[in-house]
Amino acid sequence: MKIDSKLVDKLAQLSQLEFDEKGKTQMTSDLNKILALVNKLEELDTENVEPLVYLNTETNVLREDQVGQHLSKNDALKNGPDKDSDYFKVPTVLKK
């Protein structure tokens, strides 16, 4: 397959792009280079190569969730600079 000006015009129309003559020439050249690379890759023997699903063989080692001690609401509210009876008070961020 050869990429020519007519095909670049069609691709530009489909992708809603506009090229001047210099850009069209550059795009034709770039697409031909990409096509040549893909054709070169097709020469490789991949008969016994398994598809790559993951980039590495590492797996996450996660710990089990454990219930432990936690702060009571009153102890947590003691640590805040400004509080209400049940909540921390913070400065207004959004204005109406």
Describe the structure.
This protein has 96 residues and is mainly α. The protein has a domain of 37 residues: Histone, subunit A (Orthogonal Bundle), CATH 1.10.20. Helix content is 40%, strand content 0%. It contains 3 helices and no strands. It is elongated, with a radius of gyration of 31 Å. The mean pLDDT is 88.
- Broad shape: elongated
**Which topology of one domain does CATH recognise?**
Histone, subunit A
Rg of Cα set:
31 Å
CATH architecture call of one domain: Orthogonal Bundle
Number of helices: 3
Reading off the top of the CATH hierarchy, the class of one domain is best stated as Mainly Alpha
Give the overall pLDDT as a whole number. Answer: 88
Q: What class do helices, strands and sheet pairing give?
A: mainly alpha
Q: Roughly how many Å apart are the termini?
A: 61 Å
Q: Portion of residues in helices?
A: 25-40%
Which runs of at least 5 residues are low in confidence (pLDDT < 50)? none
How many beta strands in the DSSP annotation? 0
Largest β sheet strand count, sense and barrel closure = none
Proportion in β-strands = under 5%
Succession of helices and strands = HHH
